[in-house]
Amino acid sequence: LLDRSVGMKQELGIVAGVSTGRFAPAQQLTRAEYMKMLLGALNIPQASRPVGPVADVPQNAWYAGWMYAAWENGILTPDRNGRLHPTAPITRAEMAGATLNACLVAGKALNPAEEDVLDKFHDADEIPDAWRGAFAMMVGNGLISGRSGVALAPVSSLTRAEGAVMINRLLLLP
């Protein structure tokens, strides 16, 4: 699934390697990299400027348009210091929230899901309250199956492989 997910997304320009011929599937995915993948996959265009002051997204950075669009569309929100943390690894919980928000923006229909779909995972209690509903939607719609089927690892960083598989599953939804 990973090879197919990465290959198809590379052809579409949604996923890029870390260097020519090297994908680095176990490497952590940054918030900026995931926004590029997610917004690109859902055809949410880049924004040319921020909707307000943002302290850590230089206008000339490769990811600026993706981060501005994520903020403008409510997919990500800056912290109280006006930072989006584009180069920080994105956690699996943040990924669930951002993915749900992006689906809403793009009009991608997801089926409702109750939080009890999380009960089979031994670490469900580690999901931050702000992301529980989003995680339930991702699990309920088959976008997240957990690590080893028993752990969600919500506070762990998303890997490049997991991000590619998530985007592939998202694109396969009706």
Structure description:
- By secondary structure, the protein is an all-alpha fold.
- Helices cover 39% and strands 0% of the residues.
- The chain contains six helices and no strands.
- The chain has helices at 2-12, 31-41, 64-72, 92-106, 132-140, 160-172.
- Helix 1 crosses helix 6 (160-172), helix 2 (31-41) crosses helix 3 and helix 2 packs parallel to helix 6 (160-172).
Strand content: under 5%
What is the distance, rounded to the nearest whole angstrom, between the alpha carbons of the first and last residues?
19 Å
The biggest beta sheet reads: none
Mean of the pLDDT scores? 88
Question: How many runs of DSSP E, i.e. beta strands?
Answer: 0
Shape: globular
**Main structural class:** mainly alpha
Number of helices: 6
Could you state the order of secondary-structure elements as H and E?
HHHHHH
Helix content: 25-40%
Task: Give the C-alpha Rg.
Answer: 15 Å
pLDDT under 50 segments (min length 5)? Answer: 5-10
Labels describing this entry:
mainly alpha; globular
Brief characterization of the structure:
With 174 residues, the protein is mostly helical. 39% of the residues lie in helices and 0% in strands. Mean pLDDT is 88; it is low at 5-10.
Describe the secondary-structure layout.
Elements: H1 2-12, H2 31-41, H3 64-72, H4 92-106, H5 132-140, H6 160-172
Helix pairs in contact: 1-6, 2-3, 2-4, 2-6, 4-5
